[in-house]
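Handout, page 2. Input:
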Amino acid sequence: MKPLIALMLSAALSSGCVGMAPNRDLGSLKIASWNMEHLAERDGEGCRPRTEADYALLRGHVATLGADVIAFQEVQNKVAAERVFDPALYDVVMSDRPASTRSGECRGRPGLFIQNQAVGFAIRKGVPWIRNADLNALALGNPDLRWGVDVTVLHGRPVRLLAVHLKSGCNSGREPTDPDCPVLFDQLPVLERWTEARARDGEAFVVLGDWNRRLASRGDAFFADLNDGDPEGSVLTLTSGDQAAGCKARYREYIDFIATGKVATGRLEPGSFEEYRYGGIAETEHPSDHCPISVRLLG
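Output:
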């Protein structure tokens, strides 16, 4: 075990921010990202009100997805997450950001009110992990912007994972008169400092989540600025490659991404990127307005 990882493990054990269990399979690690569309703690609440049958359906999709680690977004709190990710099967790791005070009416849904939207991970029991400090600087001092959640997974060779949900409303271009674009681009150097620090330390790292940006578009300004190649190990690979998104007929470009740094890119299982489309059911029956995406990393 490298000295840095040993030091992190010792600190995590002391703080209790660690999940350790016998790891029976040191083969590939399947990691996924899933925006769960306003997953609420209670039935009938939030901008996507659900019933117990809906939560049961989501649990079924978790089982079919079969990922070892899922970065999730738009989840109200840990109780909400554990309605889908059975705590007997998964460790749920939530952002430490205080709950947002936003409480306005949901767009186009009178009588329903927006809930807290948090970022986190569900990590399969038996997969060892360490929690690192949240990337709270992504909030730019705004209590309504999401923090990044940072964990190190010790499944074979360690890999550092950062779950993000960036500012919405600026999915392309860089229009300064658009109030959302300056905010998104202010998040960029925060993210870049994190990736560059991981590269300088020689770590395998992955940034995954809802970027709210069409990063794969030719010449995208956000991705070009982030992915400037300095230092060399910080170069990011979008694991979806040139594949078109298929979750929604109207949207053929991804805004959810799993982006790997140079070391992690070298561990990608070829051809392992997948968009999980809920078993091919009609789009109107999808349990979220996003489909999970996943890749496998070789141990």
